[in-house]
Amino acid sequence: MKNLPVYGWIKMSFGTKVDFEKKSNKDRDWEIFRKLRKKSQSSLKQAHWDYLNNLFLEDDNNNKRLWRYLKGTRKDSCCVSTLVADGKIGTDPSTKAEMLNRQFSSVFTRENQSTPYIMNQSPYPEMPAIHVSNGVFKLLNQLNQHKANGPDNIPAVFLKLCASELAKMLTFIIQQSLGKQTLP
Fold this sequence. Notes:
With 184 residues, this protein is mainly α. Helices cover 52% and strands 3% of the residues.
């Protein structure tokens, strides 16, 4: 098996058992592959339990490896610990992202939309028009679609897919806002 991850319970001989590549679409080859995959998964589980049993059977004075293993199992891949919101426990990354999104959305101020904020007349001369169309399109395309939604609950994947259409409208809104010196 190529690029085998390094764990304490994986032996080097394990890699040779799983070294099978799918080179054809024949049913017989797929059946062989499934059997090998099942066998490798079961032998990996067995090796993991053997490793844990050895950790528990070690001398009580030298159980540093056991505590290192236990500490490593507590860590989450996204670096956010378990969250509790509304009496519900969130352990998987998508649930945590939703909980954090609701929390961050709740702290934003809801402004009165009936009377928009109007800026006072500026003592400075009017600045020339700023053309931001390429920049808006570029920023929309650079959005990470795997991130959580913002307070507007619009998914980044939607913004990214519709970037060419949205860039024109957003550019118009930004130009009007800068030209009229008001916030939308």
